[in-house]
Amino acid sequence: MRKWTKPNTRTEHFVFLLFEQFSNQVLANALEPLRAANTFLGRTAYTWDLASVTGEPVHSSAGMQVVPNIAFPVENPQSNLVLLPSYGYRQIATPSFLRQLKAASNSYARLVGVDGGAWALAAAGLLDGYRATIHMDEFDAFSEKFPEVFALRSRWIDDGDRMTAGGAISAFELMMNLVAEAHGTALTLRIAALFAAVDSNAPNPLEPPRGDVRLRRALATMEGNIETPVPIAELAVAAGCTHKDLERRFHRTFGASPRKVYQRIRLNTARNLIETSSMSLSEVSTRVGYSNASAFSRAFREAFGQSPRSFRSVE
Q1: Average pLDDT, whole number, for the chain?
Q2: Which domain holds residue 158?
Q3: What confidence tens digit (pLDDT) does each residue in 172-219 have?
Q4: Which of 47, 63, 86, 184 is exposed most, by the fewest CB atoms within 10 A?
């Protein structure tokens, strides 16, 4: 269960290994959550390189040419290797590439297979004994071809130092999960809001797989009532469940109470106002539902590691 902890100041690196006919959408969905996290955190929490096997340009399925800045392999034990083949991924699993991949596997903290990436990892024996998934169109063939892999029909799977996702939307969900584990769910709520305006009653393709309509309604009510916070009992009514059930759903999904999640959403709004406006800190405090400036300052410091005033001074 995720906990609300002090800010994580570590920098994490990713190597995105591209192949001919890779999907632009899958790459964007895997990379953009990291870029957005850097923007909202106000620092470089994530770095990345684009790589190809030869270091030469590769072309996406739409014909877009991408010039990698490094050639595979890159030996960096603190890095995460993300394989991004989308079309023709069976053909990339040549004996020479699989030997190269297996030899380099210990040089990375995590191996991540997205879209068809699990096929190459499995063919190299790097998913033996692990839970894994692949694009649903290939799931039956994948599970039959690699019986040593615990293949599961899932949108994405995090099995420690091996991660797999079946396609573009699930790639986004997987990366959002990584960001949430490192920096908290409040940040991923902010990132999700950046990429999609979601109706509270409509299915959200970007939410975690265990999301439900009652949580969506509660979160939408929170986001629509920043300046005058709604009591938790009223949030439960808006969500269509009891107070106790709402508490249970939030703890199960976010590892925190509705009150704590609501506070973080309001503080995220405060941070955005400080970043993007010349509004006085007193007015910012009022705009996010704090009548007491000292209480606002304490809550802000707890959430972001520094006071609103010092935060504004470094922007």
Answers
A1: 85
A2: 12-180
A3: 989 988 998 888 777 887 787 777 544 434 334 344 444 568 888 888
A4: 63
Q: Measured between alpha carbons, how far is 216 from 277 in angstroms, rounded to an integer? A: 29
CA dist., res. 107 & res. 73, Å (int):
9
**Cα angle, residue 117 at apex, residues 157 and 205 outer, rounded to 5°:** 50
Domain count, the chain: 2
Cβ atoms of 23 and 165 within 8 Å: the answer is no
- Domain match, 175 and 87 both: yes
3-state helix, strand, coil in the chain (%, to 5): 50, 15, 35
- Are 20 and 160 part of one and the same domain? yes
Taken in order 274, 280, 282, 284, the sign of the CA dihedral is negative
Is 19 found in the same domain as 158?
yes
Residues 40, 159 share a domain: yes
* Residue 27: predicted pLDDT: 94
Q: What's the longest Cα–Cα distance across the chain?
A: 66
DSSP H/E element including 170: helix 168-183
Selected residue with higher pLDDT from 103 and 6? 103
* Of the residues 180, 199, 233, the one at which a domain ends: 180
Mean pLDDT, range 253-269, rounded to an integer = 85
Q: Which long-range contacts (CB under 8 A, 24 or more apart) does 245-254 make?
A: 245/214, 246/214, 246/218, 249/212, 249/214, 249/215, 249/218, 250/215, 250/218, 251/1, 252/1, 252/210, 253/185, 253/208, 253/210, 253/211, 253/215, 254/2, 254/185
